[in-house]
């Protein structure tokens, strides 16, 4: 697979929850190895676009390709990692930080020999343990590995969820509001970690309301308000004029046309 194949490509994509449209006529192409920030008002369909990629929402119409193939094929191949919003997680479940991050490896464990999958966990392939430890180190949570996740602060929980995604060693990182509700040190650490992942060649696709971070870190900004309002460089997309169009849901902007982020 070459780097010229888009990381994410959609053509006239439509989706709905309970027959209520959330995305209409989305056509876009996102390159590999870049950081795209998805920006829009609440209820604009930003998270729905990620849900289409991870398979928790089915499209009504249109085509969605990930790395040139179906999203399901790329999920099976382990090429998509997803960091959900914190409120979607069950934080009272009695599980340690290390074991939470290890759950990110479960999909990859299905490819291990049967005897390893049936054996006690300490006989698992060492690569899983190594990936977990590396991910915990990356987000500065190794010292909390044995702590129950329910005892963590909001910023620490976000870092654990990021570590879980990193442990998958996927080519594409999907992140839903990773900076929401975090303290400044955790925000800086998360952004630094994502910068490293992008420099390592991974594709970062992040839903966010944090305009300053998008301006500084993103290569591309995708503006969505049910339809595609705009896509391009942060300085252009986060201008007052474009944000005003986003707020009113400019349904004519780029509708039905494709613009490839540079």
Automatic annotation (TrEMBL):
Which InterPro entries does the entry link to?
AAA+_ATPase, ABC_transporter-like_ATP-bd, ABC_transporter-like_CS, Metal_Ion_Import_ABC, P-loop_NTPase
Keyword terms: ATP-binding, Nucleotide-binding, Transport
Q: Which Pfam families does this entry report, sorted A to Z?
A: ABC_tran
Question: What range(s) does the ABC transporter domain occupy?
Answer: 8-251
Which molecular-function annotations from GO does this UniProt entry contain?
ATP binding
Query: Which CDD domains does this one have?
Result: ABC_Metallic_Cations
Keyword Transport annotated: yes
Question: Among its keywords, does the record have Transport?
Answer: yes
Q: Which PROSITE patterns match?
A: ABC_TRANSPORTER_1, ABC_TRANSPORTER_2
Domain of life of the native organism: Bacteria
Give the UniProt family note: Belongs to the ABC transporter superfamily.
Q: What is this protein called?
A: Metal ABC transporter ATP-binding protein
Q: Which organism is it from?
A: Billgrantia antri
